[in-house]
Design a protein that fits this description.
disordered N terminus, about 240 residues, 10 helices
Length: about 240
């Protein structure tokens, strides 16, 4: 049995972390830009950190999980952006948590409807948003999927979301040790998360820990001039 707290070499430099956590609007008047302008700063930070962590974990998926004619980097970037949208449903469904995935999926579909996104990348992004609330044992939502019926990229997003809920300080709560967070996720293998997704997490664990140490000093987008509030609201109701 492999030791579950085995560490690997840390490869990420400060510039790597900044590049991973840099997301661009498709245009300054997009739905995403408008939604972000209305999100409180802690929720912005949560979405960005979940997207960044998921994108990093996606770099460790087996080659069999990557669609044909798609590179690993393209796959990881699709997972990264799809995971960024994972809580966008909160903007539409308010406190109805079980409606977040379907509302977020509709939000994403509207956002990139006319954009130059490959069918494979679009599928990954939509599945990531819709199924990130599912659990491996079938106890999740919205469709009660179980086991291998849940796309791996959605499982990766689910783990990234769990990591940020445990390791982020934005809630003002006591943050558990990184090793404790890792143990909780590893113990959820085969129950909450697929074995393959947990493997991606353990492979990226050292770099993820490094990112959170960096973010506690310099939170992503907290003072980033690339994210600017817009002077209008969404004109069309979605959801």
């Amino acid at each position: 049995m492999k030791p579950i707290l085995r560490r690997k070499k840390v490869y990420l430099a400060r510039k790597d972390i900044e590049n991973l956590s840099c997301f661009y609007y498709i245009d300054s008047n997009s739905l995403l830009a408008t939604a972000f302008s209305n999100f409180p700063l802690p929720l912005k930070r949560h979405c960005v950190q979940v997207g960044t962590v998921a994108g990093l974990m996606a770099k460790y998926v087996p080659s069999s999980a990557i669609p044909e004619n798609m590179t690993l980097d393209a796959y990881a970037n699709a997972v990264r952006y799809g995971s960024l949208y994972h809580d966008m449903g909160a903007y539409l469904a308010f406190n109805q948590r079980k409606m977040y995935p379907s509302a977020g999926e509709r939000f994403l579909r509207k956002e990139i409807d006319t954009r130059d996104v490959s069918p494979a990348a679009l599928k990954i992004m939509l599945e990531t948003v819709r199924y990130c609330g599912e659990r491996y044992d079938g106890s999740g939502y919205p469709d009660k999927l179980a086991g291998e019926d849940i796309p791996l990229h959605a499982e990766i997003c689910a783990i990234a979301n769990t990591i940020d809920e445990c390791m982020s300080v934005w809630r003002g709560m006591v943050v558990p040790a990184a090793a404790e967070t890792k143990l909780n996720i590893v113990h959820g293998r085969g129950i909450d998360f697929s074995p393959e997704a947990v493997e991606c997490f353990t492979a990226a664990y050292a770099d993820i820990n490094l990112m959170y140490k960096r973010w506690r000093k310099v939170p992503p987008f907290w003072k980033n001039s690339d994210i600017k509030p817009l002077d209008r609201s969404i004109e069309q109701v979605i959801g």
